Amino acid sequence: MRNIVFILGLIMAFFFTQKSKAQSSQEIEQIGYLLSDALLYSEKYIIPATDAAVYQASSTWITSPKKQKLWSVNLGLHTNVFFVPKSDRSFQIQNQDFQFFQIENGTSAIVPTALGNGSYVYLIGNLGGDQVRLKTPKGIDQEAIAYPYLQGSVGLPYGFEFIARYSSKVKLKKGDYQVYGLGLKHNFSHYFPKVEAKKINLSVAAIYSKEDISFDFLDINTAYGNLGINNLNSLVDTYHFQLNASKEFDRFEIIGNLIVNSSSFEYLVKGERGAIEDVIPVQEVINGLLKRISRDKTNILGEISGRYQISKIYLQSSIAFGKFVNGNIGVQYQF
InterPro entries under this entry (predicted)? Predict the structure, then answer.
C-alpha cells in the first residue's frame, strides 16, 4: 500500500511541477513519502476509536422483549458509558516505520490513539531544504466516554415494535461523536401462551445505526502551504441483529440479549483546505487512499439488563460485553 501512496504522490507532484519548474525530483519523492507516512499514522490512530464506536452504538436498543400494546409509545432518556481499555489507548512508532518523518530526539516513542491520553511527540522531516515539524495528535484523555441520547418506540400490530434513537453531536476533548438509527422488533413469545403465562418474553430485532466520529488530526505546515488534513472523520454503518429474552418478577424484569452486528467503515480527512490545494489535491487523494484501510467487521456481544417499573416510569441499567465493556442507564415513560 505504501508503494501505491508513493506513486500517487509522484502523480500529484507532477501537477505541482507544472506550476514550479524548479521543483527537483527529490522534492517530488519527499511529497510522496510525507503522504505515505500520514496515511500510516491515520490507520493506527483512528481504528481503535471506530471499533469502540460500534460498541457504544450497540447498547440497550431493546428496552424489553415484551410485546407492547398497540400504538403505545415509550420515550426514554439514556446515558451511555463506554470504558476505554488500556490496550487501545496507545501504540508504538519507530523511525523505521516512516519514510519522510523521524522522531525528534529519539528513535521510538509511545503515542496515543484517538482513545489515548494527551501526550505527544514531535516528528520532523525535510521538504525542499525546509524543515517540516509535526506535533502528533493527542487522544481524548478520558477513561470513560459518556453521552446522552433519546430513544423512542411505538407498538405496532402483530407483535412488532418500531424503535428510533438520536443523539446530538457530543463534544469530546479532541473530537466529536454522534449516533442515530432505527430498528424493528418482533415479539414471538405471544405465539406460545404457556410461555407467556410464565412471564417469559422472547423477541428478535433488526436495527440500523449510523456512527459519526471525528478527531483533531495532523496539522502539517510546509513551505508550499498547509496540507489541510487536520481533522480525521469516520462514518460507520452498523446492522444489528438481536435475540432477546426476559423474565418478569412483579415490577422487575431481567433481560438478556445476544447481539451480532456487522459494520462498514469509511474514513475521511477534513479541515480547512490549505493553500497547497491550489496545486495539489491532497484531501482528495488521501481520501481515495483511505478506502484501502476501510473494511467490514463483525462483532458478537452479550448484554444483561435490569428494568424496574414505577407506575408509568421505568428505570433501566444494562451492561454489554465482548471485546469491550459498555454500560447504559436510562429512564423511560410509557404513554
Answer: DUF6588 (IPR046495)
Mean pLDDT of successive 10-residue segments in the chain (335 residues)? 47 48 62 84 90 88 95 96 90 93 92 92 87 90 89 97 93 83 97 95 97 87 77 93 96 97 91 71 82 87 97 96 92 96
For residue 323, what is the enclosing H or E element? none
Instruction: Provide the pLDDT for residue 25.
Output: 65
pLDDT at 279: 67
Residue type, 11: I
Q: Distance from CA of residue 313 to its chain's centroid?
A: 32
C-alpha separations of 320 from 54, 147, 329 in Å: 12, 16, 12
H helix or E strand, kind and range, residue 59: none
Identify the CA nearest to 307 among candidates 327, 332, 324: 332
Can you tell me which residue has the cell 441499567? 317
Say how far apart CA 92 and CA 220 lie, in whole Å.
Answer: 21
Identify whether the C-beta of residue 234 lies closer than 8 Å to the C-beta of residue 46.
yes
Closest residue by Cα to residue 37 from 174, 136, 119: 136
Q: Is 262 exposed, middle or buried (0-12, 13-18, 19+ CB in 10 A)?
A: middle
User: Reduced to 3 DSSP states, what percent helix, strand and coil does the chain have, rounded to the nearest 5?
Assistant: 25, 50, 25
First to last CA, the chain: 55
Report the alpha-carbon distance of residue 244 to residue 205 in Å, rounded.
Answer: 8
Q: How far apart are CA 334 and CA 247, in angstroms?
A: 19
CA dist list (Å): 195 to 189, 202, 246, 315: 7, 9, 11, 25
Cα–Cα distance for residue pair 270/165, rounded to 1 Å: 27
pLDDT computed for residue 39 by the predictor: 86
Q: Which residues pair with 274 in a beta bridge?
A: none
DSSP letters for 164-225:
EEE-PPEEETTEEEEEEEEEEEEE-GGG-HHHHHTTEEEEEEEEEEEEEEEEEEE--EETTE
